[in-house]
Amino acid sequence: MFTRYAALSAFSAFLLASPVSAEQLFWGIQAEQLEWRSGEGSEAFAWDADAFVGTDELKVVWRSEAEYATGPSSFETLENQLRLQVPVSTFFDAVAGVRYDSPDEGPHRTYGVLGLHGLAKQWFEVDADLYLSEYPSARFEVEYEGLITNRVIFTPSIELDIPLVDDEATSRAAFGPKLEVGGRLSYDLLDRAIAPYVGVHWERTFGKSGRLVRAEGEDDDVVSLVVGFRLMF
Amino acid sequence: MTIGLLRRAFLLGAGLAAALSGAATAGEYSLTVDPVTVDTGAFTRSGIGYNGATPGPVLRFREGEDVTIRVTNNLSEPTSIHWHGLILPFEQDGVPGISYEGIAPGETFTYRFPIVQSGTYWFHSHTGFQEPDGAYGAIVIEPTKREPFRYDREYVVQLTDAHPHSGNRIMRNLKMMPDYYNRKQRTLFDFLRDTREQGFDAALSDRSAWGDMRMMPTDIEDLQGFTPLMNGKSSAQNWTGLFTPGERIRLRFINSSAMTYFDIRIPGLKMTVVQADGNNVLPVPVDEFRIAVAETYDILVQPKEDTPFAIFAESMGRTSSVRGTLATAEGQKGDIPDLRKPPLLTMADMGMAHEGMDHGAMSMAGGTHTMPDGSAMKGMDHSKMAMPVGAHTMPDGSTMKGMDHSTMDMGTSDPFYAPGSGLMPTAANGGKFLSYNDLRTQKPLYPHREATREIELRLTGNMERYMWSINGIKYADAEPIRLQYGERVRFKFVNETMMTHPMHLHGMWSILDTGKGKWNPVKHVVSVAPGTTLFMETEVDAPGQWAFHCHLSYHADSGMFRKVIVEGGPEGKAAALPVKTEG
Predict the structure, then answer these.
(1) Which of chain B's residues have a Cβ under 8 Å away from the Cβ of A56?
(2) CB-CB: which of A27, A121, A146 is closest to B188?
(3) Do A91 and B180 count as a contact with CB atoms less than 8 A apart?
(4) Is there a cis peptide before residue B55, judged by omega within 30 degrees of 0?
(5) Tens place of pLDDT for every residue, chain B, 583 residues?
(6) CB of A124 within 8 Å of any CB in chain B?
(7) What distance in Å separates the CA atoms of residue B188 and residue B186, rounded to the nearest whole number?
(8) Which of the residues B174, B176, B582 would you substitute to probe the A interface, choosing the one with the greatest number of A C-beta atoms within 10 Å?
């Protein structure tokens, strides 16, 4: 927790010291996923959301990703990140920050974050992050908004998480990746603020990580139907 | 002697008449800045107006008078009023942070300045997003001399683009997601249609060319979802101007929109353009004209039949329109034409035509598609090119080498758009569409002379971040542009963005170079189309500091803005510049 506060206060200090006092501050809240996942023997509520405040030159972003299972009610995953974003090219920002994982079961972990966030050619939204700690990992996310019409939007997404060392307490083994593939069909109901969607979400854990997951008595290959809302304010 | 006496008697008489006719308000005006309700029929929202209404009143001045305008701020936030296009001392120009401090809540600020010009202008707040929120009104200045045209009736036709969202919210949404308001993006169905019409490979390579740049050919209006208003009224609310058949009517068009260019026509009537940005031009008969944000055009029409005529203004991106009516009786409604098909930007608008004018890289307006590198078009036989568009003179003329004009259809070309531009305007009835190239001043305001120096201003931006700038630098980070009193500066605008930018210099005239020398039109806004270079010259004759910016509200606010400082000047006239922090 301490690192998060440190980063926040460092950011506010930077803002106050910023030479361009006229710089406008913008903010926004987005939930790409806010959904109910119904899979083989597992029901869960999940979100992937972020909020930002900042200027053209610097943004502070809070990103949260979680899966809250309803079997025995508990956070299977709960990640919070505080990220600073600075433009490094026309379409990409460099990211630095901290990530704190606090699932209900298993150890809590803190990571440093280094990454890139931006828009690749052909309109692919890309996140590439390196999570640094004694259990480092890398993550690559791609998302695409396919316009069926200007309001009916199909959004395929891929997330690949690759542990770089063994971390048996979290059922992860070096280079045993976890893959999440999704396809969500949404309808912009109210501006771009609220867009209900339905879709499919597939999670698969490979290699030794998969064996660790199975050893815990869980499934390393889960397909879920999802129903949810995309939000933007 | 007798003539002198007569003239003096006449002047005295005229002065007396003027004093009598305007006895109540002779040179004295009052405006209050008020919270108001905007009701477009489509939506109702709170906004800002003058004297309790938006648009505010039409201020009628007389050339030669000294006006005193008391502005009382009834808002709970600071405000300001800028007199758009008026030549006046810089302290009276109404730009907070440049001319003065602005007007605090509850405060009354008194503007005093002489009226040294005539024509159609407007006024608006220069604070935050008060202007998009409704803070604008019209200015009509009667000339001292007889005008070179006659009319029996006149109406101000002020166009605006009321949006259900407040300006602050719009700006925030655009920063969060630059295509937030673009609901005309190309979809799967467009792709399927293009595949059917052009083949799969062509449709795919076109998508991939745009995707490669991460730009959209539909990106013509940053801000859709507005309701265009004519004198504060939507199509359904139908602003009406009455006439008697046979009368000549002068319509003073003002585009007070935050973001929207309009194409204007009056089906069934030929329009004669007589004034642009307040200055008389040689009359040009047209069927349709495009009005950039913040421009004004005065036109004459003479409807002879006893029937209503629609004044129809269609947004440049064809997402919306407004109809008003010239009617012989209240309650009549002109027919509303259908919106035309939305245009698509082409690679020419992306500036591809800039580099040595490689025609292979041009995309024809007809919709055949080219690769951004132009390679797919090599070996094209120019003589067989169908050029529905095809302006082939850049204003600087430099990119014309080796062109074979004989094969071109110059019928509907406008040299103020990139050759092959998707924005090239055409008249709905196939007739004459006004071009900057048609504008010739009636009476040059300045003797023609060589510019003393040239200043290049590249209009730049990053659409994905919704950042706008000049020479790649935002206003917040930029040094002011320093001009010397007495020089004649030639501004070279190079539009490197995909948007059209109406550039507005405060305090001094913008002499638009249309290649007509001393007859070049004298304006206060020059619109620079994507992928083009445009020149304007300014006689630097107004000491002080001035604003210079793109008049699209959200472009200006996000940084396409400069402070201009005019140094020096005649004794006593030189401005005592405030010693304040810049920016």
Answers:
(1) 175, 465, 467, 474, 558
(2) A146
(3) no
(4) yes
(5) 344 444 444 444 444 444 444 433 458 999 999 999 999 999 999 999 999 999 999 999 999 999 999 999 999 999 999 999 999 999 999 999 999 999 999 999 999 999 999 999 999 999 999 999 999 999 999 999 999 999 999 999 999 999 999 999 999 999 999 999 999 999 999 999 999 999 999 999 999 999 999 999 999 998 999 999 999 999 999 999 999 999 999 999 999 999 999 999 999 999 999 999 999 999 999 999 999 999 999 999 999 999 999 999 999 999 999 999 999 999 999 999 999 999 999 999 987 644 433 333 333 333 333 333 333 333 333 333 333 333 333 444 333 333 333 334 444 689 999 999 999 999 999 999 999 999 999 999 999 999 999 999 999 999 999 999 999 999 999 999 999 999 999 999 999 999 999 999 999 999 999 999 999 999 999 999 999 999 999 999 999 999 999 999 999 999 999 999 999 988 655 555 544 443 3
(6) no
(7) 7
(8) B176
Residue B518 CA to residue B441 CA, distance in Å, equals 8
Residues of B in contact with A145 (CB under 8 A): none
What phi and psi, each to the nearest 5 degrees, are found at residue B483? -115, 155
Of B185, B474, B557, the CB nearest to A147: B185
Distinct helix (H) and strand (E) counts, chain B: 5, 30
- Supply the CATH classification number for the domain B22-145: 2.60.40.420
Domain borders along chain B are: 22-145, 183-217+344-422, 453-567
Structure-block tokens of residue B571: 């004794």
The CATH code of domain A2-14+27-232 reads: 2.40.160.40
Q: What is the DSSP string of B113-137?
A: EE----EEEEEE--STTTTTTT-EE
Q: Which residues of A, range 135-194, sit inside 8 Å of B by Cβ?
A: 146-151, 192
Residues of chain B with Cβ-Cβ distance to A85 below 8 Å are none
B464: contact with A, CB 8 A cutoff:
yes
Q: Is the Cβ pair B476, A91 closer than 8 Å?
A: no
Interface predicted TM-score (ipTM): 0.89
pTM, full prediction: 0.87
Distance from CA of B184 to the nearest CA of A (A): 7
Phi first, then psi: what are they for A88, rounded to 5°? -120, -15
Pairwise CB contact (< 8 Å): B184 & A232: no
The contacts of residue B474 (CB under 8 Å, 6+ apart) are A56, B467, B468, B558, B559
- Are domains B22-145 and B453-567 of this chain identical in fold? yes
| Architecture of the domain defined by B453-567 | Sandwich (2.60)
Of B173, B180, B465, Cβ closest to residue A56: B465
Best CA proximity match to A59, nearest among A30, A102, A100, A101: A30
3-state secondary structure string across B313-329: EEECCCCCEEEEEEECC
The reply to whether residue B583 touches residue A22, judged by beta carbons under 8 angstroms, is yes
Task: Inspect the interface and report whether the beta carbons of B464 and A232 lie closer than 8 Å.
Answer: no
